[in-house]
Structures are given as structure tokens and as C-alpha cells.
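Progress note, project year one: complex with 2'-deoxycytidine-5'-triphosphate.
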Amino acid sequence: MLSSFQGKLVRNGEEKKAVICIEGNIASGKTTCLEYFSKTSNIEVLTEPVSKWRNVRGHNPLALMYQDPARWGITLQTYVQLTMLDRHLSTIVSVYSPVRMMERSIFSAKYIFVENLFKSGKMPEVDYAVLTEWFDWIITNISIPVDLIVYLQTSPQTCHERLKQRCREEEKVIPLEYLESIHQLYEDWLINRTSSPLPAPVLVIPADHDLQKMLSQYEENRDKILAAGY
Ligand code: DCP
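Model obtained:
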């Protein structure tokens, strides 16, 4: 049970950090958002373990997944699920801060990326079934609290432009249609609320703007976002 005690978040009688997950399409600007808050507030920031997905014991499951999703989708997504769970459960002893902000979540890994692979016919049904069994077991048996989702809402076209500019080797093969599918899944989950369950309330920030405008929007929304911890 979640309640507020003397301005601090109390969960099951224990003082806990509020967890804010930054969500959005590939290249929607999540890292910039996290960097901004890590520099300007006393919060704990957990970036996405993407470097691990590009190098697990010398293998690159992210690149393999883009080369052949039907073969390697389950490999990448099993590892993503593990690394996201690890992030959710990690205890970092840092300067005391009532707020933890993290990039994406175990929920979007399943509700967006695994769904996308399956729905687009790129993941065999048995792989989807096994991943779903794992996911359901995890969320039934392990507490994964999330207090706020910040959705950086972009158009797929903007993300496509940003992707081309940043030129991450593995992502050169991503077509606009892929970003459109991810976008639609995000919209159905967080805006239309017609697909998977929401683990927390959602704050939407329009994110097609240039850097300067994005930073001023983060500033304008600072209190609303950080209020999750008080
Ligand atoms: N990815 C994936 N499956 C997941 C999560 C991510 O295939 N469950 C892929 C999509 C990208 C890469 O991993 O190719 C990194 O994804 P993000 O969009 O999470 O990270 P970005 O660096 O693109 O975020 P941003 O540009 O918004 O900071």
C-alpha cells in the first residue's frame, strides 16, 4: 500500500523512493530527458542497459535481432527482460534522494517490443508464449513499483530523422514502418488505454520539438514530475 507520511513516500510501512519511468519511441529523447534531470535535481537516474544488449560476453544480441528478428528476437528480449528487472530491483546507495528516474521499464519491454515482434509475425508463437510466461511470473511474484510514467510523445517521422542523425550501427536498418508500429503500440498503451494494463499514472510531454524547447518543457513540468516523490 502506498501512502504519504510527513511528505515522504511510504510503501508497506517502509520509506521508499518514488519511481518515474521515462517512456517513448526509439530516439524520442529519453536519454536527454534523464540527463537534464540528473544535472538539475537531486534524483537518482538509471539509464537503459543498452550497452549490455550490444555486448553480452562478446555477443551483440541487439544487432542480431535487427538482422534476423525471427531467429534472435527471443534472445534479445529475454536478455532485455533480465537487465530491466535488474534495474528495477537495484539498490543504489547514493546521496539521499526521494526520486528514482529510469529509462523505460520491464513493462514497455513486454507490452511494446515483444508485442511488436509477435504482432508483426516476426516472433514464433512459442517464443512469445515462453516470454509471456516469464513476464507474468515476474510481475506476479516480484513487486515492481512504478509511480509515474512520463511519455515523450513524438511522431514516428521525427524519431526516424533523429535515428538517421545519430547513426547507431545496429539501427541503420530500422525503417519508418518499424517506428510507426512502436508508436501505435505506445499510443494504445498510454493514450488510448486499449491494450495492456497501466502500472502507473501517465504524464504526456510532446517531444517533437528542438532541444531548447524540450529543455524548457522539462523545466515547466519539473514540479509535476518530481511531485511523485513527495
Ligand atoms: N530495444 C529493443 N527492445 C527493447 C528495448 C529497446 O529492441 N525491449 C532497442 C531499440 C533501440 C535500442 O534498443 O534500437 C535502444 O532503444 P531505446 O529507444 O530505448 O534507446 P534510445 O537510445 O533510442 O533512446 P533515446 O534516443 O530516446 O534516448
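Confidence is low (pLDDT under 50) at residues 1-8.
The first helix runs from residue 30 to 40.
No further modelling is planned for this target in the current period.
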